[in-house]
Structure to design on (130 residues):
């Protein structure tokens, strides 16, 4: 996975990978979790092609395979339906509106509110009580 990270950093450094900037301060191109990978990039045909190239190069060098059936594509609400379906078709990955939870913690797509962690906190409180 270190090689994958290096390839992404190289593409970002070359200006080929256009990663989003959050809070006008932090640019995020990818995150690794155990055996999961989350990629962040601009929703465009060029970025999808570049992302596929990086992933295919990694798979060819490492012998790993990407399970596209287990993969999910989450797009910004600002991405048109037409572009979304083109991206999904090129990547071969289905689109989702909700990535669910990771180790019991909700993967947040919008603003964090009190209710975001309410279910998790009550579950932890009941376990501590018991």
């Amino acid at each position: 996975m270190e090689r994958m990270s290096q390839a992404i950093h190289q593409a970002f450094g070359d200006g080929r990978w256009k990663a989003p900037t959050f809070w006008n301060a932090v640019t995020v191109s990818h995150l690794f979790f155990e055996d999961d990978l989350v990629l962040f990039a601009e929703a465009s045909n060029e970025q999808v092609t570049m992302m596929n190239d990086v992933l295919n190069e990694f798979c060819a060098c490492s012998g790993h395979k990407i399970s596209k059936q287990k993969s999910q594509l989450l797009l910004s609400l600002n991405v048109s339906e037409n572009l979304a379906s083109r991206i999904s078709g090129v990547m071969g990955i289905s689109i989702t509106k909700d990535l669910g939870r990771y180790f019991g913690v909700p993967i947040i797509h919008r603003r964090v509110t009190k209710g975001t962690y309410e279910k998790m906190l009550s579950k932890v409180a009941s376990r501590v009580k018991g």
Remarks:
- The beta strands are 21-22, 26-27, 30-33, 36-39, 101-102, 105-106.
- DSSP finds four helices and six strands in the chain.
